[in-house]
Amino acid sequence: MDLSKDLAAGTTPMMPTVRDLQARLCALLVLDALRSAPIGWTPAAGTRMPFDALCAQVGVTAEHRKYFHRILGFLHADGHLRLHNDDGVNLAAVEVEATEKYMAEKEDPRVLCQQLQRDYPEFRPSTALSATIAAQLAGILREQVDPIHLLFGEGGSVAEALYRDDAELRPYNEAAAARPGAGRAPLAPRPPAAHP
User: Fold this and answer.
1) Which of 16, 59, 84, 132 is least surrounded by Cβ atoms within 10 Å, i.e. has the fewest?
2) How far apart are CA 136 and CA 140, in angstroms?
3) Do residues 172 and 15 lie in contact, with contact meaning Cβ atoms separated by under 8 Å?
């Protein structure tokens, strides 16, 4: 069933603006996490650092290297970093370079977070979750903090607020709830396939 019309009807004209502000917030939050304790990465602009060396300095576990690479990719797209020799497969060949933009960035993410929550309260759950995850980024990358707990801990209240109250996700839930059969009990899991 195509839900695109239902979803389109639930969007608001301000979404592109809010998405831009939230993307900016996420970049600032990650920059703040990289620069602050306990990570404290303070590179010299224009100096390349092997991705593996940066992972070691940050304390990124082997399981989270791809996730960290993806985070750095967002900062690359934003112009804060350059990723050299990045084919997306051989991470050992990647070199990370902080740009002048990385060095010059002074905007405080907490101010933007407060502005978003004040001016766009209907996006408060996703804004707050972004800030919560970024504040725990070092612990997540080092496997000292469980990111699933950040979303589903405390009885699932964060996830519930996100899916129930956030303006970007609410239309998806409303469209899914409105489709025929949405009120039925979930299907029982399929039995495992028999192997000869």
Assistant:
1) 16
2) 6
3) no
